[in-house]
């Protein structure tokens, strides 16, 4: 029987990373006196807001891809790019907050790992479908 503890752990870490971006955005909002629902104001706040929003956007792509790969290929192998995704998003968050021009490597790491998981997961699903129809 396969254990899904590793992808579950990666999921928890990814959600914690997102919560971290939310907290950093909220602290920046308070620091610069930007009241909700405003999303513009001080450049530091705007960067933190974009980090939070982009992380949320990437989670919608990453989490289903992680679980498709884990369910239809391998939960252990799927956790490796899942961990790399989290590292990439952390690099993205820290570099973007410091200088927006430095965000690309972290973004690329996250996007590439999500694509690996999606393509691998889709391949696993198709393999199962074709194996059952043979």
What does the model show?
- The chain has four helices and no strands.
- The chain has one domain: Up-down Bundle (Four Helix Bundle (Hemerythrin (Met), subunit A)), CATH 1.20.120.550.
- It is elongated, with a radius of gyration of 17 Å.
- Helix content is 82%, strand content 0%.
Q: How many separate domains make up the residues?
A: 1
Q: What is the typical, i.e. mean, pLDDT?
A: 96
Series of H and E elements: HHHH
Biggest sheet layout: none
Q: What's the total number of strands?
A: 0
Number of helices: 4
Distance from N terminus to C terminus (CA atoms, Å) equals 24 Å
Question: In percent, how much strand structure appears in the residues?
Answer: under 5%
Predict the CATH topology: Four Helix Bundle (Hemerythrin (Met), subunit A)
The CATH superfamily bears the name Membrane associated eicosanoid/glutathione metabolism-like domain
User: Which stretches are poorly predicted, pLDDT < 50 over at least 5 residues?
Assistant: none
**Classification by helices and strands:** mainly alpha
CATH class: Mainly Alpha
Give the topology.
Blueprint: H1 5-31, H2 43-72, H3 75-98, H4 104-132
What's the gist of this structure?
By secondary structure, the chain is an all-alpha fold.
Supply the key terms.
single chain, 134 residues, mainly alpha, Four Helix Bundle (Hemerythrin (Met), subunit A), elongated
């Amino acid at each position: 029987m396969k254990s899904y503890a590793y992808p579950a752990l990666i999921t928890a870490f990814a959600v914690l990373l997102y919560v971290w971006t939310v907290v950093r955005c909220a602290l920046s909002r308070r620091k610069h006196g930007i009241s909700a629902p405003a999303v513009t104001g001080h450049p530091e706040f705007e960067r933190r807001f974009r980090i939070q929003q982009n992380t949320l956007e990437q989670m919608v792509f990453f989490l289903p891809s992680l679980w498709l790969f884990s369910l239809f290929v391998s939960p252990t192998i799927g956790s490796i790019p899942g961990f790399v995704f989290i590292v990439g998003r952390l690099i993205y968050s820290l570099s973007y907050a410091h200088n927006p021009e430095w965000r690309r490597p972290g973004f690329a790491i996250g996007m590439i790992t999500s694509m690996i998981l999606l393509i691998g997961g889709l391949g696993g699903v198709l393999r199962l479908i074709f194996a059952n129809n043979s």
